[in-house]
């Protein structure tokens, strides 16, 4: 099942009790089914705009990487940028955001974040 899974500490005991699949692996579905059986499974459907990219093989990893690069280049945004997400959602103030940027080495990523900060300031000025 594609998704992002967040578990409490009881997952350790559950995983130890799960039997290996025919492939000889622990299956995430078996763990999720045990949470369901215990009445502890919570599911959130992801809204439009989310994409699941398998990276289980070298070919799939290359395809996922190419897809992400194309989206970032064409839309001018970074995918999976936790600092930007924290700023937008109010978990970081602009001052905290800029402090984080200041601790980063000069690179394409910190340049991107500086652009996000500049845009943030422009939007705040436009609101006044």
Please work out how many helical segments DSSP would assign: 6
Q: By helix and strand content, what is the structural category? A: mainly alpha
Quaternary state reads: single chain
Order of helices and strands: HHHHHH
| Structural domains: how many | 2
What distance lies between the first and last C-alpha atoms, to the nearest angstrom? 46 Å
Cα-atom radius of gyration: 20 Å
Tell me the number of strands.
0
Main beta-sheet strand count, sense and barrel state: none
- SS strand fraction: under 5%
Low-confidence stretches: none
Helicity, as a percent range: 55-70%
Shape: elongated
Mean pLDDT: 91
Essential attributes:
about 130 residues, mainly alpha
């Amino acid at each position: 099942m594609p998704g992002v899974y967040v578990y409490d500490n009881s997952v350790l005991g559950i995983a130890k009790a799960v039997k290996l699949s025919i492939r000889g692996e622990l299956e995430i579905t078996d763990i999720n089914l045990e949470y369901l059986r215990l009445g502890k499974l919570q599911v959130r459907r992801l809204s439009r705009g989310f994409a699941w990219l398998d990276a289980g093989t070298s070919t799939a990893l290359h395809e996922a990487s190419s897809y992400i690069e194309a989206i970032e280049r064409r839309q001018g945004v970074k995918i999976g940028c936790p600092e930007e997400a924290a700023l937008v959602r109010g978990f970081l103030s602009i001052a905290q955001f800029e402090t984080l940027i200041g601790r980063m080495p000069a690179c394409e990523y910190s340049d991107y974040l500086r652009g996000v900060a500049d845009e943030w300031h422009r939007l705040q000025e436009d609101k006044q």
